[in-house]
Amino acid sequence: MRIVKMSLLLSALLSVSAMADIAVVVNPANGNAVSTDDLNRLFLGRTSTFADGSKATPLNLPEGQAARDEFDSKVLNRSSAQLKAYWSKLVFTGKGTPPKEMADDAAVKAAVAADPNAIGYISSGSVDGTVKMVTTF
Hints:
Elements: H1 2-18, E1 22-26, H2 36-43, E2 57-60, H3 66-74, H4 80-93, E3 100-101, H5 105-114, E4 118-123, E5 132-136
Parallel strand pairs: 2-3, 2-4
Antiparallel strand pairs: 1-4, 1-5
C-alpha cells in the first residue's frame, strides 16, 4: 500500500513540474513592456524591434524541449510541425531567419543577461536576478 501511495505522489509531482510556467525574460536594463502580440510578432519574424524602437533579438530553446513546445503552443498558437514549415518557407524564399536556438535555460539566461536586446523564455523556476521576467504563460 505504501508503494502505491508513493507512486501516486511521485506521479502528481512529475505532472506539476511538467506543467511549470514559462517565463519570458529580458535583460534587466530593458524597460519595454511585452505583450503576447509583441511576442508573437518577434518570434515569428514579423518585427525585429521592441515597442520603443530598439532592436530585439529573440532566442529559442531547442525543438523537443517541453518549455519550447509550451511556448509555441501558448504564445505562437502553432505546433512544432507548423513552425518548422513556416520557417522553412521563409528561409527558402529569403524572407526570414528563425530565432537563434540556445541549448537550454542556462544558455538563454546567460545570453539575455549579456545582451540588452535579447528576449527569450525559460522555465519560471530558472529565473534569477541575472534576468528580468516580463510575463509568464
